[in-house]
Amino acid sequence: MWRHADQPSPHSDVRAASRLRRALALATLLPALALGARQARAQVTAGGVIYAQWSAQLDSLSPANNIDVTRAYVNVIARFAGGFSTRITGDVYHDADATAGGGMVERLKFAYGAWSPPGSPLTVRLGLTLTAWEDYEDQLWDYRMQSPDIMDRSGYTSSSDFGLAVDGNLGAGNLDFTAMAFNGEGYSKLPGDQHKDFAARASLRLLGSDDASRVGGLRLTGYGQLGAPTGGGIRNRFIALASYRSKHLTLAAEYVATRDSLKNTANSLKDGRILEGFGVLHLGASPVALMGLLAVINPTTCTTYVGGTDCPLAARYDTRTVMIAGVSYQASASFRLLADVDRTTYQTPAGAAAPRSTTVVLLQTQFVY
User: What is the distance between the alpha carbons of residues 84 and 43, in angstroms, rounded to a whole number?
Assistant: First the structure.
């Protein structure tokens, strides 16, 4: 049947009614959907840390006087219902590699998801995440603003890696532990090959203090790591730590044994030893604290490699002694100032051109936002 273009279709009223019913249904559902979205919405927090410093290197071989931003972290943390959370941390740092221009570059430091089942003392993390040792010692030492801890500074461990970790806290913090499987190459390198590292750390509180955190009180802590570098070989680390921490005093003594080798590579076996002690004294209720660290690092090198035998004592060299001493001022919860001296002395083979010592005087700041 012919119909004028302006004449309504006999089905138009049906379609209009159908659209009206859908609109009314959607209008009815919107409040419920909005309520559900609010309940499912993550609690997102953003913040970061900036480390800036003025350093003067005093040794005669390579004197320097620089103002620099050594690190800038940007953290975004989201928490969801059911104990789920995510974290993304960008790491902006000064790249000393001349091929990259020597400027500021950015990379991921952390990018992981975590699940803490309600009522459970366990947390599972997966992704580019905190490693089992660095996170713990950084919290105990509390002066990451000065430099990475000795294990990281010496290249034995990394603060972040690609892996799966399980954290636990039992007995109101009397036992704190982490077990982890990870690539082992660190967050600043390529993931590597099929080889994986396995590590575990456990810290037992023997005596409490006025510091109720997971590093507070008198504690014995052990760490073990077994693995292989890219291409195969050995990458083992073992740490024993005795520590005491209260609100006014931190004392720690640490022993480290390491073993490294590359598969099918002659003269590659290295047995390292580190002896370390550090302390922090807060002067009463004032914002002033004294800090100090002493570490002797012996990255033993073998001149011969015979079936995995230990290195002879005569082959050991390149011992380094690191001494750090300083005074800090906590101006506010967001700002800390540290003036310190960082001195490294070297025991090098006879005739080596390496410097015998380096001394750096630093004025360092930590901004937390």
Answer: 11
For the chain, what's the residue count? 369
**Mean pLDDT, the chain, as a whole number?**
83
Q: Of 295, 132, 144, 140, which Cα lies nearest the Cα of 219?
A: 140
Token duo for residue 245: 């921490």
Per DSSP, the residues of 175-237 read EEEEEEEE-SS-TTS---SS--EEEEEEEEEEE--S--STT-EEEEEEEEEE---TTSEEEEE
| Mean pLDDT, rounded, for 106-130 | 95
CA distance 71 to 107: 11
Task: Count CB neighbours of 89 within 10 A.
Answer: 20
* Whole-Å CA distances, 33 to 20, 29, 38, 40: 19, 6, 9, 10
**Is it the case that residue 71 has pLDDT exceeding 80?**
yes
DSSP 8-state code for residue 315: G
DSSP-derived 3-state class of residue 40: helix
Pairwise CA distance, residues 146 & 155, whole Å: 17
Residue 126 pLDDT exceeds 90: yes
Domains and CATH numbers, the chain: 44-368 (2.40.160.10)
d(CA 219, CA 252) in angstroms, rounded, equals 9
Express each pLDDT in 276-308 by its tens digit.
Answer: 999 999 998 899 999 999 999 988 755 444 444
Q: Which residues pair with 79 in a beta bridge?
A: 43, 85
φ, ψ of residue 218 to 5 degrees: the values are -90, 120
Q: What is the mean pLDDT of the segment spanning 5-22? A: 44
Instruction: Tell me if 175 sits within 8 A of 204, measured CB to CB.
Output: yes
Of 137, 235, 240, nearest to 189 by C-alpha is: 235
User: Measuring CA to CA, how many Å separate 143 from each of 98, 138, 279, 339?
Assistant: 29, 7, 11, 12
Output the six-digit token pair for 233: 């070989």
Q: How many helices (H) and strands (E) does the chain have?
A: 3, 16
Q: Please compute the mean of the pLDDT values over residues 154-183 and round it to a whole number.
A: 94
Instruction: Provide the whole-model pTM.
Output: 0.81
